[in-house]
Amino acid sequence: MLDEDLARIRAHRNNIHRYRRLLRTKLSELERQFIERRLAEEQVVLKSLAAETFPVAFAMPNDSAGSEGVGAEP
């Protein structure tokens, strides 16, 4: 499962790089609009897939007072 997710992430990342390269070339306005739309779609899918594949497994504490003495000796 993880290998498949990583392969999908890699494919979307490669598509994003390809679309960015294409945007640096001479394009008609219609082509540019299409590529910009596809780029935005790929970025949304990549962000979603990355969040599913690598969920945050911890939460930061709400109380920052405990971090004042970190590393200090009593």
Major β-sheet profile: none
Tally of contiguous helical segments? 2
Structural class: mainly alpha
Give me the count of strands. 0
Percent of residues in beta strands? under 5%
Q: What is the chain-wise order of helices and strands?
A: HH
- The 3D shape can be described as elongated
**C-alpha-based Rg, rounded:** 20 Å
List keywords for this structure.
74 residues, mainly alpha, 2 helices, 64% helix
In a nutshell, what does this entry contain?
This protein has 74 residues and is mainly alpha-helical. The protein has helices spanning 2-23, 29-53. It has one domain.
Provide structural commentary.
It is a single chain. This protein is mostly helical and 74 residues long. It has one domain (2-53). It has 2 helices and no strands. It has helices spanning 2-23, 29-53. Helix 1 (2-23) packs antiparallel against helix 2. 1% of the residues are buried.
Produce the secondary structure layout.
Elements: H1 2-23, H2 29-53
Helix pairs in contact: 1-2
